[in-house]
Amino acid sequence: MTEPLRLGTRRSTLAVIQARLVADAVTRASGRAVELVPMSSAGDESAAPIASFGSVGVFVAALREALARGDVDLVVHSYKDLPTEPDPRLRVAAVPIRADERDALVTRDGASLPEGARVGTGSPRRAAQLLAARPGIEVVPLRGNVDSRLGRVGELDAVVLAMAGLTRMGLVDHRVTPLPVDELVPAPAQGALAVECRVDDAPTHTVLAAVEHEPSRRAVTAERAVLAELNAGCTAPVGAHAALVAGELRVTGLAAAEDGSAVLRATECGPPDSAAALGRAVATRLRADGAADLLAAAAVADIADPRGVPVTGGSA
Ligand SMILES: NCc1[nH]cc(CCC(=O)O)c1CC(=O)O
Hints:
Layout: E1 5-10, H1 13-30, E2 34-39, H2 42-45, H3 58-69, E3 74-78, E4 90-94, E5 103-107, E6 118-120, H4 124-133, E7 138-140, H5 146-150, E8 158-162, H6 163-168, E9 176-178, E10 193-198, H7 202-208, H8 214-229, E11 238-245, E12 248-256, E13 263-270, H9 275-288, H10 291-304
Parallel strand pairs: 1-2, 1-3, 6-7, 6-8
Antiparallel strand pairs: 3-10, 4-10, 5-8, 5-9, 11-12, 12-13
The protein binds ligand PBG.
Ligand PBG binds at residues 78, 80-81, 146, 161-162, 164-165, 190-191, 315-316.
Domain Porphobilinogen deaminase N-terminal: 5-204
Subunit structure: Monomer.
Protein name: Porphobilinogen deaminase
């Protein structure tokens, strides 16, 4: 009898839900049993704000080490939390069908934001775009898992969270208003999962190919090419969104000053099989408009002013 595949997962509620989703999809599509192996990571145990870690991908490092060592056969990440730098020991064997990629505003009663509203988010990308669109608001730094951030609504007028996390956790209700992607450009790869295995593990790769969704892979490839070409990480004020429109891939990128005082956008359309090139072309146009200076200023602000916010639990 074939051994079950071992899937390493963080212990947060959302991570376990995402791991189960992939495990079930793999078993359904391939007949292969998959067992979950819960693990801890440095990011889950730290109370420091994410910007102060100084490097992206803190939540994925421990899982990747366990996978590279052979303790587990596959791991599942929120794709937007993966550094753009590839890990030569591993490969993204599958990108399953993507969930809702939009951000959402969660308010007390689903109403729109009052003048001078206090809005919680720890994301420079969300902060910049909210401040640019609604200059009267105050952005309150915030991190922690989805539940703890939701718990701040009441004391705050609103918090911003990804629809994907809320949906997967069954938390979408009348208080949740999705924001259109052209109003708040999502994080590159938001809503998508990355299923990794060891680069030389061909049998597992073959099994995981059963849950690959090519349109999702293409969109994510284009969006992450924007981020990589700007040399930016998952905490930079950079957004990217790709969608199939009339058979073409339409890729939008955004780079902003963290205070919302400047917002750059660029869009390119082209054949879906040139996803990465389209993403790079978007980044090149953002760069030509001054994106590098905006992002350098945002990075300096993060170091000078690490946001000290008490948290309970890890990030989503
Ligand atoms: N950085 C936190 C994070 N990483 C992945 C998700 C869930 C959404 C997704 O899978 O893209 C979230 C929570 C959030 O941004 O609200």
